[in-house]
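Example for tutorial group B:
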């Protein structure tokens, strides 16, 4: 009986040692100076994510939003990784109209730009983002209600 108690104690201690020794995952691709928003970030109150970490690896990327997402009056584009060069945003609305937003600028990691949508709060169907191709650059788009 004493031997089985010793074996149980060794197994229990060994199991906790293994759990403590588990490595903590590290995102080695993310640069230290990049700003990552926390879910509770006050600056993002009222902002709804539409595109998360989209890669700027081609001339254009289509972001499908859908009218069920709600009405918005501003868009915020933020560089997540690398330095995406954003040419234009073509925002298509539920009423069939299109708003072309000329950006023509590069964003540094963590930097963002905010643009107003014409006509106040509107339902967005899709956003065509035109970029300069850069396989290392990613961006996110958020909309404000």
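The residue assignment follows.
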């Amino acid at each position: 009986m004493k031997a089985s108690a010793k074996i149980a104690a060794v197994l229990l201690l060994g199991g906790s040692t293994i759990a403590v020794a588990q490595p903590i995952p590290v995102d080695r691709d993310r640069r230290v100076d990049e700003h990552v928003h926390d879910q509770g970030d006050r600056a993002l109150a009222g902002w709804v994510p539409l595109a998360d970490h989209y890669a700027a690896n081609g001339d254009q990327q289509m972001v499908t939003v859908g009218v069920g997402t709600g009405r918005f009056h501003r868009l915020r584009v933020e560089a997540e990784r690398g330095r995406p060069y954003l040419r234009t945003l073509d925002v298509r609305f539920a009423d069939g109209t299109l708003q072309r937003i000329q950006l023509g600028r590069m964003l540094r990691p963590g930097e963002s730009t905010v643009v107003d949508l014409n006509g106040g709060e509107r339902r967005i169907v899709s956003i065509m983002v035109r970029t300069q191709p850069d396989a290392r650059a990613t961006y996110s788009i958020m909309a404000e209600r």
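The beta strands are 47-55, 60-64, 71-72, 74-81, 85-93, 98-106, 112-116, 122-132, 138-144. Compare this with the pattern of hydrophobic and polar residues in the output above.
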